[in-house]
């Protein structure tokens, strides 16, 4: 609440707000603080979960605590690292957030998100390779394909990192076809 300038906050960047061991009351308190901070400064909070089904269940049980609906400053996304997990997007679509997104990171295979990019389910697509010892390679063609899917649907595309065993190649070093791709919805 002391931040005076707009900030983007990745909530629980190393964990999952909707892990089964997180008490629903903690999630409610966290959502309440995020909602309150939006009124004065407009901070944007990004929540990423591998468990959109638990997020839907939580929302169904607590939506009455939010008479104005899902706060616009709380964006929610799910991880989809391969087509096997794309079903998570169908579940994510049940949440009434203004901004829903996919983090295809680490991207492990070719991925088709066209149905959810074109039907308005997704407003943002983040892509990144795996990094560190034992990192599995990400094909630049997979990233290009997702970039093109997002562009065709008018959805913001953010290439976070290319990944690799020796460095993430992130930020200004995440170059695809001669440029960085750091778009935000909006």
Topology (SSEs and partners):
Blueprint: E1 8-11, H1 24-41, E2 44-49, H2 52-62, E3 74-79, H3 87-92, E4 100-104, H4 114-118, E5 124-128, H5 140-153, E6 156-161
Parallel strand pairs: 1-2, 2-3, 3-4, 4-5, 5-6
Q: What does it look like?
A:
There is one protein chain. With about 190 residues, this protein is of the alpha/beta class. The chain has one domain. Helices cover about 30% and strands about 15% of the residues. It has helices at about 25-40, 50-60, 85-90, 115-120, 140-155; strands at about 10, 45-50, 75-80, 100-105, 125-130, 155-160. It has a 6-stranded parallel beta sheet. α4 (about 115-120) links the parallel β4 and β5 (about 125-130). The longest helix has 18 residues, at about 25-40. It is globular and about 45 Å long. The two termini are about 25 Å apart. The model has no long low-confidence stretch (mean pLDDT about 95).
